[in-house]
Amino acid sequence: MKTIALTSNSLLSIFEQLQEQLGGKLQIKSNEFKLEIDNEIGRGLISGICIEKAICYIEYEINFTENVSIIYHHDNAYSIHFGYCSNGCLIQSFGEDGKKSKLNQFQTGIYSNSSKKNTFFSFSKNQQINVSMISVDTLFVNNSELKEQLKNTFLKNKESNQLCYIGSLNLRIAEKINSLNTINQKGIVRNLLINSNIYLILALEIEQHKYDLTKVENSFISLSQSDMKIVNRISEYIKMNPEIQYSLKYLCKKFGVSSFKLQEGFKIMHNRTVTDFIRNIRVEVAENLIRTSELNISEIVYTVGLTSRSYFSKIFKEKYNCSPKHYQNHQNKIGITG
């Protein structure tokens, strides 16, 4: 077991300590940090960004060759950690011998620790781990409404309370993390997109906690992790093949899932029905084709699996507040004047 000790709230200090104890190449650009590791300890990337004094984001995309525990030594009774596991699992405990909680794939974990015990996050060897952690220091949160909500929800007894909450399965957060990792813009646009995505991930994790508390008796609790993985596969399949004429019967038969679990899974993961999800994907693919291809509107309609141009115009306008033709003309003007 390799133990990594982190003793600071400063993201710069955290990454310097990670590099000192794990090795690797550290890149710092503006307020973004990337530690690339390729040695006897493991292979992968640890990245982070500080979006304001109170909020920082760290993502672990790594495969360790030995069991690794990261220990947070700093004593801050006002900090809350919002974790999310996209792949693999993460083990958490307060103190080395404390009760262990397991954060599985697609689950949110919320942790705060006001005791003298350190917080342990443990990674198993030879397992690809994708875990993100948003740390919020409520003392320095600028938004007073957010500060009060966080303190009243997660820090009710800051003198003695330890909070470890493991949420139900949620794929929407994984999608937003993926969106965050695919941002390729630069400068102020990049900063704005990164900040908005991290705030949205944080909002979804808080929403998940609230939803779980109020809906604990709902049937979605019966959906297993394997069920959600199937729904995730179906979602990706639809994204890659928007042109197919889908039906619930077709999807259930192809992926071996019941209609109930399919509908419930999409409701949990995407907050949409299957039909709404397919329609939204087609509109988004079409919007991308309008911007990046030379196809005309009719060709795009058929490319995304629709047959009615008028219906396509209707759903496109509902999402983007203008007709496809107007949108295309505006893109052409940008191309001419750019």
TrEMBL record:
Organism lineage string: Bacteria, Pseudomonadati, Bacteroidota, Flavobacteriia, Flavobacteriales
User: What PROSITE patterns does this protein map onto?
Assistant: HTH_ARAC_FAMILY_2
Q: Which PANTHER family match?
A: REGULATORY PROTEIN PCHR
User: In its keyword annotation, does this UniProt entry include Transcription?
Assistant: yes
This chain's protein is named: AraC family transcriptional regulator
**Stored InterPro entries:** Homeodomain-like_sf, HTH_AraC, PchR_regulatory_protein
Transcription regulation is among the record's keywords:
yes
Q: Which domain of life is it from?
A: Bacteria
- What positions does the domain HTH araC/xylS-type occupy? 232-330
Enumerate the UniProt keywords alphabetically: Transcription, Transcription regulation
